[in-house]
Amino acid sequence: MASSSLSVVLLLCLASAVSAQLSSTYYDKSCPSALSKIQAGVAAAVASDRRMAASLLRLHFHDCFVQGCDASVLLNETSVGGNERGAFGNVGSLRGFAVIEQIKKDVEAVCKKPYSNNGPVVSCADILAVAARDSVVALGGPSWEVKLGRRDSTTASVAQANQDLPPPFLDVAGLNASFAGKGFSLTEMVALSGAHTIGMAQCQNFRGRLYNEPNINTTYATKLKLNCPTSGGNTNLAPLDDDTATPPNPDLFNNDFFINLQSEKGLLHSDQVLYNATAPAGATEGIVNGFASSQAAFFSAFASAMVKMANLSPLTGSQGQVRTVCSIPN
Ligand code: HEM
Ligand SMILES: *[C@@H]1O[C@H](CO)[C@@H](O)[C@H](O)[C@H]1NC(C)=O
Ligand SMILES: *[C@@H]1O[C@H](CO)[C@@H](O)[C@H](O)[C@H]1NC(C)=O
Ligand SMILES: *[C@@H]1O[C@H](CO)[C@@H](O)[C@H](O)[C@H]1NC(C)=O
Ligand SMILES: *[C@@H]1O[C@H](CO)[C@@H](O)[C@H](O)[C@H]1NC(C)=O
């Protein structure tokens, strides 16, 4: 008994070792208002553009999957090793850079002396992680605790971004491999895909599915084709989730994404592959059914997978730096 509870303690220690240097109280002395400033910045941005919540969530994902959560995605000059903003999944697509820069300014303005005498206090990587959480909460989704103390990279890698960000033409095996490469299980991958309950995608990213794939709901496809013709209109937008809420509220963070997959209303190829309505007994169908029938199960799985994502290889201690401006190294 004593030895088995000791090994449980040991296991828990090992499990948390990755994030051991991040802490929920990291800015309590140096910048106690940081979290409320970030939340206020997200609230203001979302009030004027509800889609911004989705854009900020995606920014954090695209940060963490490339070199870890180090704000490398925000750098905008090639002298740092590459401009990730120019990578395949990012260029002409990522949004929210100006919102993050504004939040960064507002946050630094309230940090405490003497800490702030030595330069900026709150990292861009931490701002991304907190803003992603606050964005989900702002649209009615689950909350989770964000550990803090990440530092910002001085480098970025467009090559690694092209390699590590999953493209929408992947099947389950490819999606699973991409997420397994970052330590995520199949269930966590499906839960994280549920982020597509909010936000928009461009016609060029779903045209192939819309016109060539048989497993798309006819009513849904007819509606989508109006704004996504066979040629032209590449950047025309459609909601990632054909929300079923009444009154229609396509920007609500809920589990409708999974319910829609069951009736073949996934917008992206990489979303619909999670559910084959003809043969719903594959590896991911059961997971989709679980999240479709229980929003609580989805919220809980999503929140813990987001905690895991936010802890992907952070720079801590004296590694990296805390940037003054998020788009350029100091
Ligand atoms: C499973 C693999 C994934 C693929 C293949 C994928 C692919 C895409 C694509 C193609 C778009 C549309 C981009 C555009 O047309 O401009 C998109 C949007 C989005 N993705 Fe993903 N994604 C994946 C996973 C995730 C994850 C894990 C998250 C966050 C946890 C996420 C959050 C979002 C959000 C919120 C949007 C909407 C952004 C906006 O409206 O500005 N995605 N994704
Ligand atoms: C980098 O920033 C400049 C100036 O703000 C902007 O014109 C350019 O489009 C940005 N590049 C990328 C790839 O985002
Ligand atoms: C997902 O990846 C893991 C780890 O590589 C593998 O064991 C599992 O069989 C894969 N599952 C599917 C459905 O591809
Ligand atoms: C397709 O979508 C319509 C409208 O949302 C829905 O009534 C219908 O049941 C769906 N069809 C299938 C086969 O799931
Ligand atoms: C769904 O499963 C059926 C039966 O195994 C198969 O014939 C069909 O190709 C699958 N659909 C897709 C889109 O993979």
UniProtKB/TrEMBL annotation:
GO terms for molecular function: heme binding; lactoperoxidase activity; metal ion binding; peroxidase activity. InterPro entries: Haem_peroxidase (IPR002016), Haem_peroxidase_sf (IPR010255), Peroxidase_pln (IPR000823), Peroxidases_AS (IPR019794), Peroxidases_heam-ligand_BS (IPR019793), Secretory_peroxidase (IPR033905). Ca(2+) 2 binds at residues 197, 241, 244. It catalyses: 2 a phenolic donor + H2O2 = 2 a phenolic radical donor + 2 H2O. Its main location: secreted. Disulfide bonds join 31-111, 64-69, 124-326, 203-228. GO terms for biological process: hydrogen peroxide catabolic process; response to oxidative stress. The keyword Phosphoprotein does not apply. Residues 1-20 form the signal peptide. The keyword Transmembrane does not apply. The active site is at 62 (proton acceptor). One of its GO terms (cellular component) is extracellular region. Substrate binds at residue 166. It is found in: Secreted. It comes from the Eukaryota. Residues 21-330 form the Plant heme peroxidase family profile domain. Ca(2+) 1 binds at residues 63, 66, 68, 70, 72, 84. The record marks 58 as: Transition state stabilizer. Its cofactor is Ca(2+); heme b. Keywords: Calcium, Disulfide bond, Glycoprotein, Heme, Hydrogen peroxide, Iron, Metal-binding, Oxidoreductase, Peroxidase, Pyrrolidone carboxylic acid, Secreted, Signal. Its EC number is 1.11.1.7. Removal of H(2)O(2), oxidation of toxic reductants, biosynthesis and degradation of lignin, suberization, auxin catabolism, response to environmental stresses such as wounding, pathogen attack and oxidative stress. Belongs to the peroxidase family. Classical plant (class III) peroxidase subfamily. Belongs to the peroxidase family. Ascorbate peroxidase subfamily. This is Peroxidase. The lineage of its organism: Eukaryota, Viridiplantae, Streptophyta, Embryophyta, Tracheophyta.
